[in-house]
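Students often ask why we bother encoding 3D structure as a string. The short answer is that it lets us treat folding as translation between two languages. Here is a chain of 154 residues written in the first language.
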Amino acid sequence: MSEILISHKGTYNKDISGMKELAGDILVLEKMSFKHPWTIDNISAELAKETSLCMASFYGNEMTAACCFSRTLDEAELLRICVSPEHRREGLASVLLDLSLKNLATIGVTSVFLEVRKTNGPAIALYKKHGFCTISERKNYYGDCDALVMKRNM
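And here it is in the second language, the structure alphabet:
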């Protein structure tokens, strides 16, 4: 699935699964987006897995957003989604999520799960917009915050 998909506002989106050389670019986004970013080894390992689907948005040569899913049989889990601060609120996360869900559906995934900080209103709104519903809550999942477990049937 290495097809390049043109998006809006001059960005393009691409399936980067298997492209371990882009781990450093994802690490930069991780550090700008998460209190506890993945390590370069975590990212490289996820990119290398045959059961992963990783997508990224680019503006020129700059990676502006990325997301990664893990698949098991007919289920998938959104592991990470991050957007560089200067490109937030441009719809990149929504575009990546939409493209990823379409790709997952074409390979037989019937349900997708994710965890999100209960206090992350913008992310929860994004997931609801894409058909995810809260199915449970995990107390202290992030140490300092509870998580909502959300699911979407395809």
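Translate back mentally: The CA atoms of residues 1 and 103 lie 8 Å apart. Keep this in mind for the problem set.
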